[in-house]
Amino acid sequence: MRQARLYDIDELAVEARGWRHWLHQHPELGYELPLTSNFVARQLETIGCDGIETGIAGSGIVAVVNGNRPGRTIALRADMDALPIIEAGQCPHKSLHLGRMHACGHDGHTSMALGAVKHLAGDRDFPGRVAMIFQPAEEDGFGARAMIEAGIFDRFEIEEVYGLHNWPGLTAGHIAMREGPLMSAVDTIHGAFRGKGGHAARPQDCRDPLLAAAHFTMALQTLIGCERDARRPTVISITCLHAGETDNVISDRAEIAGTIRTLDREVRQTIVARVEEMAREIASFHQVTSDVQVRPEYPRTTNHPVQTRAAARAATDVVGVERVITDIEPSMLSEDFGAMLNVRPGAYVFLGSGEGPALHAPDYDFDDRLLPIGIRFLSTLARQSLARINA
């Protein structure tokens, strides 16, 4: 263990900005994050963590910082992966890899996590230990589940877990959360309708799968309007529909894909069953066949009461009670962090980044002014949570 040094958070934020700009210039996707993982590991080695395990679920890392007294363990999680998007912005630290960019702020999340680790390592006046989780494949690949299956929660004896995400549209510097469902579960619709193709001038000789797919697309909205309690938010969006290659041929196949977003477990089960049933019934009506299925993706992100209140207390100490929202409306966006909250109690919070480009927009760039707030919040939350569970 290195000799302790107390770090000023504003000083750490300047260093974190350099980390963030480097990460933004070198975005990587999914589980394959060699540059990102190596960069993070080098910083952690320099900081002087008490344990660093790399190569978890491909590129994942867990770094441990021990307090100066024995005790139990909490975890903080940061996501590291980028998105397959061509960057449109012109910031000085623009992506050096065409077709990949940090359009969701994971470069900022990782940098805030590194800053919090350094702050905790510099002042170890707390019981127990902090396990900082650096996760791959949040955007596409369910990296949270892979980290869970790698056994990190048992091996590191993690008792609580917390996560943070920057949030455009929420006033910059505000921190928001809620007990219970915060972000939706996700299921995806995939498959095809198959019929009999032929000349577009003789539709009577064909069995048009595109008509069935179009009918199915429209009929899905009746599940929202007629078969669901309006007090339970649900979204069904068909995002892909493809059939044929030319204007005078009826195709024999229409491929379809989409997403289902729900906050209520019972509604989720009902909607999933009805979507597949509806696909079969509409295919039969049009005298075609269907293999459309619903594939489960992410669980909903559900905050636990005690840990949400702990996050609110830490947020209040960092930004003041007037900038803390404890009843933010749930979002129909999704987060694989929900899987971690299914195995350990914890909470997920939003750090407001104000007006500007949305997440996943090609001109998005994380706001460096959030770095000191995030570092201070994560380190404060860690210290207070450890004091509580080790009391």
Q: Please list the strands of the largest sheet in the order they lie side by side.
A: 1-2-4-3-5-17-6-16
Strand proportion, as a percent range, falls in: 25-35%
DSSP, total strands: 17
**What is the molecular shape?**
elongated
Distance between the termini: 25 Å
Q: Main beta sheet: strand number and arrangement?
A: 8 strands, mixed
Gyration radius, in Å: 24 Å
Uncertain ranges? none
* Named CATH architecture of the largest domain: 3-Layer(aba) Sandwich
Name of the top-level CATH class of the largest domain:
Alpha Beta
CATH superfamily of the largest domain: Zn peptidases
The percent of residues in helical segments reads: 25-40%
Number of helices: 10
Textual characterization of the structure:
The model has no long low-confidence stretch (mean pLDDT 96). The chain has helices spanning 9-25, 34-47, 106-122, 143-149, 152-155, 209-226, 265-285, 305-319, 337-343, 371-389; strands at residues 51-56, 60-66, 69-79, 127-135, 158-168, 175-176, 180-183, 185-194, 198-199, 234-243, 249-250, 253-262, 289-290, 293-296, 301-303, 324-325, 346-354. The chain has two domains: 9-183 and 301-389, Aminopeptidase (3-Layer(aba) Sandwich), CATH 3.40.630; 188-296, Alpha-Beta Plaits (2-Layer Sandwich). Helices cover 36% and strands 27% of the residues. It has 391 residues and is α+β, with helices and mostly antiparallel strands.
